[in-house]
Amino acid sequence: MNIAQYKEIIQKNIKEYFAEYSKNSSYSSTIWESMKYTTLLDGKRLRAIMCLEVAKSFNIPIQKAMPLAAAMEIMHAYSLIHDDLPCMDNDDLRRGKPTNHKVFGEATAVLAGDALISFGAQLIIDKLETEPKIKLDIVNDYLKTAGAQGIVAGQIADIEAENKEIDIENLKYIHKFKTGALFKCSMMIAAKLAKVNDEKLALIEQYADNFGILFQVYDDIIDYTLTTDELGKTAGKDATVNKLTYVKAYGIEKAKNIFYSLRDENHDILTKLNIELNVFEEIYKMLDERINK
Which pTM was predicted? Predict the structure, then answer.
């Protein structure tokens, strides 16, 4: 299965989950529309794809792991809605469309983000077929990632860093949680569902940590080099608020070298894990084409 095929099946399943859970919700239909709006916008679906690919690599059928993949995209949508709010990054565009608060209003957007957090956890509890102990561990990972030990930690550190001089270690902390936590959770919960041993779990964690940094380097590069139309979101916002980025710290070429070094290291990790490289290589090719556009 390639990226396009994965995206199609992920989108189909997320739509079905929304349809099932939002029925008989006439008095709360607005919140469901707001939740669906951002979640179903056309995106790369990398977190869900990586979740499903890890599961498949350890003999878990894709459909069995689908509640996890859908929950990660739902969590990602929550993070995007809140990140775009006027009190946060204050952006008007996301994936080439008006941001959630521009369509539904700021109050509804805040509530939609809140509701998405619990909806993702609810999907895992209701739909994931596994032993209670494993399910509890997975839900715990999911909720930690969504909160003050994950995305929120990265977001608050990012806010506090605006218009301040910070060092590279502070930058790494921000992106370990704001960006990397989602990728890490996506891969780790799939591995836990597959009951992989501790040695393999450590390698998957290392891969995910590397990918989180790599993806942020990629994002910093394209924010500097691509236009708003090409990005689907406002270009150059980090420079506007004087944020430290990998491009600002190292320059374009060295930032690219960091990207390629982490990609090569992750290739070796997948080889050790005996995981098929095709989909992961397709992901890297897609990112590589964007940073060299």
Answer: 0.94
